[in-house]
Design goal:
Elements (H helix, E strand, L loop, with lengths): L1 H16 L9 H4 L3 E3 L5 E4 L51 E4 L2 E6 L9 E2 L1 H7 L4
Parallel strand pairs: 4-5
Antiparallel strand pairs: 1-2, 1-3, 3-4
Length: about 130
């Protein structure tokens, strides 16, 4: 019984530490990847702030607080805290996809932690030094 508890705790710990935390060596898989909403709306790219379509470029419509095509517009279905398609709703079932040239990388979402295919835009920005 004691061994079973140790095994279960080990599995839980491994799954928790493998959640969608971004490591610096993973930045290459995000750079240039497109962000696409569940309805097909193009929401910009992941990458350095100098990249024209980057969500981290303060001059891009994809980083604005007014554009429907921005995850930072809290009046849009991609940026509010209650929409099922929002990056900032931890319970969203259908957050925007991160798509690279090689295919689906994961989903842009602040949670929940147990989804290892969901990545926070803030975590990506600061880990990859794209501000």
């Amino acid at each position: 019984m004691k061994k079973l508890i140790v095994v279960i705790l080990g599995i839980v710990f491994i799954n928790h530490t493998n959640s969608a935390e971004v490591n610096s060596w993973e930045c290459g898989k995000f750079e240039g990847a497109s962000i696409v909403g569940s309805d097909g709306t193009y929401l910009g790219k992941l990458g350095p702030s100098w990249l024209t379509d980057s969500i981290f470029n303060s001059s891009s419509i994809h980083s604005s607080t007014w554009s429907y095509e921005s995850i930072f517009n809290d009046n849009s279905s991609f940026g509010n805290s209650y929409s099922n398609t929002s990056v900032f709703n931890t319970s969203a079932d259908d957050p925007p996809k991160i798509i690279s040239k090689s295919g689906l990388v994961g989903y842009l979402s602040i949670g929940p932690d147990w989804h290892s295919d969901r990545f926070s835009p803030y975590d990506i920005k600061y880990t990859c030094d794209w501000d």
